[in-house]
Amino acid sequence: MASYLVTGASRGLGLALVTRLAALPTTEVGKIIATARSDNSPKLKELIDTSSGRVELVKLNVSDQKSVSEVAGEVERVLQGKGLDFLINNAGVMDYSPTGVEGMDKLNELFQTNVAGVHMVTRALLPLLRNGNKKTVINISSTVGSFALIENYRQSPTPAYKVTKAALNMLTLQYAQTFETEGFTVVAISPGWLRTDAGTERADLPVEVGAEKTVDIIQSTGPHQNGKFLNIHVAGWENAPGANQYPGGESGW
To answer: What is the domain class of 2-231 according to CATH?
Structure first.
């Protein structure tokens, strides 16, 4: 019965991940800590209210050092002295620049959330992760930050998002290398182009599908995949035309 913490859980993929985890048997998933900047998400509140105490909200702004510095104590309280098994760093923001890199004016803002925020939260929760049985950190990344696939996304007007996801991938590798000897598993997962507020209705997949396939990877990963960049598998999308394919396995860095 593993414990999970999901950042950015008030909407989009974060909410879908918490919903998917809560639908799994208690023999597999125990306490689920949903973090968000506020408690004004009706869907998250409903999920918490109907979870019989299994899902609990902890307020967290991943880009604010004061908020991050307080989160470990709150999480420890929720876990009642037990360790944290899985940390899912999902919180993130996206830019839009129709003129490409020349018009990129939100790089610092995105870097603070998408990269520095992941580092601050992971570092703050390391003591609890060390006491967990799984010692697993999942960083939600994107293939748009892949150097190997850069040509696929040449036309995507999100330059700061690309830069920060590339940086997040390197941060993932740094943590994977540093904590490998302690039995940690640190991986990056690309959950696909999903129909969320950020992804828009033009996206490939319903957010529920991305969440389900991401959770499948999370539950099957372990030290043998430490430091990997993993893609979801969606039947019929293995060799799809266009920029995105979802064959499972590893993505190119």
So the answer is: alpha beta
